[in-house]
Design brief:
With 333 residues, the protein is α+β, with helices and mostly antiparallel strands. Helices cover 21% and strands 32% of the residues. Residues 222-254 are annotated as: Disordered.
Length: 333
């Protein structure tokens, strides 16, 4: 299991939670520095910004829509978490924005502390990553996040997703139920956000260099691949790199849609782009035969909780290379 939209920025792992706050943490990660009892850990410092749960909770949710036009370069936490934290978000255009995180309880404030962690309860923990753990027999109903520093000065987070069976009471405006004891199951995702070092390339740059080397090696190895197919792969890689350079790290929701769309591709098809539109998403697709599109629509229907799927009207064209270009509209729940 992987986060394609985040793999260039942080390291993640998924595990079923066992007893103990650090059980399931990936092997080889530095030890955590937890606080005593109900005190808050010392999370003050500067950290590389990325589209991961730590940045979303500690910095992103304080930003306005206008400020999101430029991606974050890093964010800084200052103050003692036992009383409250000041958050300074520094964007790539050097614009700074300052906000405040208030300590409260599991039901109030921005965060609370317990078991040596800085914690976010169900009302604050985002559900953006549900798809990474959701299966046919596991659907997250509750969320929680724990954050603490490690010995290297990075921030580590554990996201807990909990599912349970329930006794349905009524369904007036959405089914409500009473959780049944003994049916609770929790799955966890671990993520690490590195401390900021101005003399070190950010994680995304280091990952891009590694990924490009792997892609070039794969292309050189696949000597039996037709030259036209190889050129399309090279064009796709260059397009992806250009998009990253122009737009910065991708939006998590958009990347989730892109990941689902790419996984459903029929051999020979190419996903050229993903963009938001009113009430859903547009997928730009290139292919050679109409039967490929028919099969692709069937696969997309099973890619998630799809509520609408269609080919956008008047969108079909032919490229200079003789391939068919089309736009698919898709809406998820």
């Amino acid at each position: 299991m992987s986060f394609l939209w985040i793999s260039a920025l942080v390291t993640l792992a998924v595990a079923v939670t066992a007893c103990g706050p650090t059980k399931g943490m990936p092997r080889g990660w530095p030890d955590l520095v937890l606080a005593s009892d109900s005190l808050c850990p010392n999370v003050a410092g500067r950290y590389f910004a990325s589209y991961d749960p730590i940045t979303v909770l500690m910095a992103k949710h304080r930003d306005t829509e206008d400020s999101m036009e430029e991606p974050l370069a890093y964010f800084e936490l200052s103050g003692a978490a036992d009383s409250g934290l000041t958050v300074t978000s520094v964007f790539r255009d050097s614009v700074k924005q300052t906000g405040r995180l208030q300590k409260g309880s599991e039901w109030s404030g921005d965060y609370f502390c317990g078991d040596g962690w800085l914690r976010f309860g169900d009302s604050r923990a985002p559900s953006l990553w549900d798809a990474e753990v959701r299966t046919d027999d596991f659907y997250p109903k509750r969320h929680a996040v724990r954050i603490a520093p490690n010995e290297d000065g990075d921030l580590v987070a554990r996201l807990d997703f909990t599912d349970y069976a329930e006794f349905t009471v009524w369904c007036g405006d959405g089914c409500k139920g009473i959780p049944l004891p003994g049916t609770f199951e929790t799955r966890s995702i671990w993520t690490m956000t590195e401390k900021f070092d101005p003399d070190r390339p950010p994680p995304v740059a280091r990952e891009r260099k590694r990924t490009m080397a792997e892609q070039v090696a794969a292309l050189e190895w696949a000597t039996a691949e037709p030259s036209a197919e190889r050129q399309r792969a090279q064009d796709a890689r260059m397009w992806q790199e250009e998009q990253l350079a122009e737009n910065g790290p991708p939006d998590p929701e958009k990347e989730l849609v892109r990941k689902r769309a790419a996984a459903a591709l029929v051999p020979g098809m190419q996903l050229r782009g993903v963009g938001p539109t009113e009430g859903g998403w547009h997928l730009s697709i290139e292919f050679d035969h109409l039967n490929q599109m028919t099969e692709y629509l069937l696969r997309l229907q099973g890619s998630g909780p799809v509520t609408k799927l269609s080919i956008a009207p008047l969108s079909r064209t032919t490229t200079s290379a003789g391939r068919i270009s089309d736009v698919v509209f898709i809406r998820y729940e």
